[in-house]
Amino acid sequence: MVGFFADGKLKKADASGGPVLNICAMQTNLGATWSQDNVIVFAPVNRTVLHRVPAAGGTPEPITTLNADRRENSHRWPHFLPDGRHFLFTARSDVKENNLIYVGSLDSKDFRPLRAAQSNAVYVSPGYLLFAQEGTLMAQRFDLRALSLAGDPFPVAEHVSHTTPSSSAIFGASADGKVLAYQPASTRQSTITWFDRAGKRLSTIGPEREYTDLRLAPNGVQAAVVIPDSDSGNRDIWLIDLVGGALTRLTSHPANDWQMAWSPDSREIAFASDRNGKSSVYRKAVAGGEEQIVLRLPDSGAFPRDWSADGRYLSLGVDDATGRSRIWALPLFGDRKLFPLVQETAVSNQAMLSPDGEWIAYESNEAGTVEIYVKPFARPGKVRVSSAGGVQARWRRDERELYYLTPAGDVMSVPFARGEKTTLGAPTRLFSACADVSPGTQVIVKPAATYDVAADGARFLLVCAVPATATPQITVFLNWTASIK
Q: pTM for the full model?
């Protein structure tokens, strides 16, 4: 059998063919490992602990706990050891030195730290732990009996693709240690580009950088973007002037600051930061000054999605105890008590408020695939908008249209009419995102917000990946341990 992640679920299928079977929900692919006893350990979603589930399917159960003293915010990238009871995994923290590789067990919730690393790890015979360190694949002796490391780590391969914010390096090895494969590192440069409704490239703003999140200010003068640090992987928010293209740094905390929402007057930005372990919500004036805490939940992460046009509410994605996201509203007045907007059993995300504050557009996987839905603000009832997958809903300022991206990166338009009865028209494809930049260029669809729409719906601002100068390759080593002295 082969296990894999698709359509928001952990799935399996016979390697020789046959039907695909669902095992359980899995919002984000942050690693899974399958033991010879048909137990699967996996990370069901970001910002939570590892869970176990029978390979036959069932209800996942948590098997690790986050270390609050180390400000851990998630466990990920599990890898079973040969005994099928112990496993390696990685803990992420907003404190760089607290990003650790652990060894855990199915038989106990106690787990042991092995070493600091912003990387996944695997074990190979005849007794080595493999992990990445600043783009170099490293190996270190590992004693299976004592479950401990010995000696010093040594380099195996340089220039390995390594994403430190996700604690992830792209490499794999056969259990017997005879075959090692990895993807060489490549730059992840991108551009910020204006397109018209037909997909014609109008202009490119600012320098090439590794942009992730993108949110256009309501006044249309600037945009907020997130740029990861190339060395530490730490994410920070920057402002880009849409006329001259100048970049100005907004946040500089050593934790991740990202996932922004503009105030309606374009003077402030609300954002998520994991400087307290679980993500909390802060706000900061774009002119500078101190950051102010808006919301910190003791056991859940909170992420701002949108700021209402009247300035009174923030829509938030809030992780529950299992790490699944639900949509809430936070009043910025009175007692500031959270109240639910979307609380279904499905994973719900985003939550863009209509300009008049009467509607929200959001993502949900209740249909099996992630789709766009619209519902009244704080009232029951909903309408499905997309039909073949959709993410990142956006409203036109006059509410006559709703936009979203398909999984393939197509920009879609949906007519939205108000009157005695609100009606939604059929989705219409406007253009293929970033297709005009150059052949082979792709838009990064998830999880970052990678496009936004001008107030009149005539222009679209997108983050477009710069095409690689070389064809992506996989490097394979055979009998790599033979060269170890």
A: 0.79
